Amino acid sequence: MTSGTTRTHLVWDWNGTLLDDTHAVIQATNAAFAEVELAPITLEQYREMYTIPIPRFYERFLGRLPTEAEWERMDEVFHRYYTEQRAACGLTAGAEELLHQWQRAGRSQSLLSMYGHEQLVPVVRGYGIEPRFVRVEGRTGPSGGSKALHMERHFAALAGAGGVDGFSPENVVVIGDALDDAVAAAHVGARAVLYTGGSHSRSSLEGAGVPVVDSLGEAVALAETFAA
């Protein structure tokens, strides 16, 4: 990684990107599916069918949107099972060193996740990487929606007092594993790089019209070329 003086700021996604938790997500999804008597799915099926908002994802298997009661039950079961399984998950290969190198080069980075904020912060702290970020934010409010408005608030905070000096959306690269990360980046005028190790298949990600990579190292290398 080159040192340079680029102002590029990275916004990292958490689940499926920095955290290698896709198998925990599949197990939690199948537990939620069992609540409405749906058959379990494979990782490949999940990646081909996954979409946001989550009720639409469930609709693809149910043949209809879940009722409000079904959604609440499935969401509760998903999060309960996910919390149980997450403890065994590690960071994605190379993630810790990439974060360290970016910070050591004098560059800024932050983390924005759709994982609940109150759960996210202690989890990130537990992996020992919280000091790498100028800001760590998780979802506030109901689960299952899009990241776009959360990204908008995240950018406002980064541009505000105590944020990032000289912050500008065109100098930001969002690194995530979902089509919604690209949508959220476009919503605020930032670039995006999508990683194939998480929630979507490569063919699904390529539909977003942004670069798609197979490792986080490739994602960071691309972010550096954007600033060249």
UniProtKB/TrEMBL annotation:
GO-annotated cellular components: cytosol
InterPro entries xrefs: HAD-like_hydrolase_sf, HAD-like_sf, HAD_sf, PGP-like_dom2
GO molecular function, one term: phosphoglycolate phosphatase activity
Stretches assigned to coiled coil: none
Any single GO BP term: DNA repair
Recorded superkingdom: Bacteria
Record-given protein name: Phosphatase
Species this protein is from: Streptomyces filamentosus NRRL 15998
